[in-house]
């Protein structure tokens, strides 16, 4: 999977979701898209990561995990359908069921609690649009590749 899908639920970056779909619009794999409010679901085809931001409404976290933010520990989790029938926790659960259905198999779910450096490093390693000191971002790499090919053909 070259470019994982990331979805925002309960944050300002979530976009407008089609009411007939469990899939909200995807957002770019860049840390600038994380606004620290809500859930961010990343599907890389092998594992589903749920990044839970520090400022996510406490009731949403409790509905989804049965725990408070302070009690959360990053790691694999077995999700249960939330008791409520609406809200962000239900949207996350329905999205995960949709991802399982799309892949036609169960993918493990891994919670990433904001502030857990080790789990965050694993989650952010998928953010290919972020530039690091010595490496181009994905977009910059493609532009550089295009310039190289253009210069060789002209």
Summarize the structure in short.
With 154 residues, this protein is α+β, with helices and mostly antiparallel strands. Helix content is 31%, strand content 15%.
Q: Features of this protein?
A:
single chain, 154 residues, alpha+beta, five-stranded mixed β-sheet
Description of the structure:
The two termini are 33 Å apart. The protein has a 5-stranded mixed beta sheet, sandwiched between helices. α1 packs across α2 (88-103). The protein is built from 4 helices and 5 strands; from the N terminus they run βββαβαβαα. β2 and β3 form a beta hairpin. By secondary structure, it is of the alpha+beta class. It has helices at 58-65, 88-103, 117-124, 138-153; strands at 5-9, 39-43, 48-52, 75-77, 109-113.
How far apart are the termini? 33 Å
**Unreliable runs:** none
Average pLDDT number: 85
Q: Biggest sheet, strands in spatial order?
A: 1-2-3-5-4
What gross morphology would you assign?
Answer: elongated
Round the Cα radius of gyration to an integer and report it. Answer: 17 Å
Class from secondary-structure proportions: alpha+beta
Largest sheet: 5 strands, mixed
What is the element layout, followed by pairings?
Elements: E1 5-9, E2 39-43, E3 48-52, H1 58-65, E4 75-77, H2 88-103, E5 109-113, H3 117-124, H4 138-153
Parallel strand pairs: 3-5
Antiparallel strand pairs: 1-2, 2-3, 4-5
Helix pairs in contact: 1-2
